[in-house]
Amino acid sequence: MLTIPLEKLAYIIEKAREFDVEVPPVNEHSGTNLADEDVEDILEDTRSNPSYEELVGAIESLNDDELDELVALAWLGRGDYTKDEWKQALSAAHQRHNKREAGYLAGTPLLADYLEDAVDQLGYSLEDLEEGRM
Predict the structure, then answer these.
(1) Measured between alpha carbons, how far is 29 from 134 in angstroms, rounded to an integer?
(2) C-alpha dihedral (93, 95, 96, 99), degrees to nearest 10
(3) Residues 6+ apart with CB under 8 A from 129
């Protein structure tokens, strides 16, 4: 049913989880230790950090059909659609396709949770992939 390879999906979920746990930006002038500020920059929730760039890069690497599927998965996991409405979710994602999906998805709070929930609803298991990577 899914055209996105589960390995790609698991990677996107991993990157979304990393981005989700980041802290809000701090005052750039508040630190006195430059080494500590470099570490804080990595954890800040900004669009110029490595986690955001990796997430967006992974999403942008998908073809149009996979991208529409990823959007539909986010909607399914968020509860906008049910498992029985999967085809409608895909159709809606296809109709709304506008080349801004990466930014939309990266800006979706709890994206990793939504994607994991959707994958579970559709009967796929990413846990098997995770166990194989360890």
Answers:
(1) 40
(2) 90
(3) 6, 7, 10
Q: Residue 42 — very low, low, confident or very high, per pLDDT cuts 50/70/90?
A: very low
d(CA 54, CA 119): 21
pLDDT number for residue 71: 98
CA angle at residue 113 from 48 to 60, to 5 degrees? 45
Which are the contacts of 122, defined by CB distance < 8 A and separation ≥ 6?
Answer: 1, 2, 76, 83, 86
Annotated domain spans of the chain? 6-21+49-133
pTM: 0.79
**Distance of alpha carbon 57 from its chain centroid, rounded?**
11
- What's the rounded Cα separation, in Å, for the pair 106 and 124? 22
Q: At 65, list the tokens.
A: 């059909």
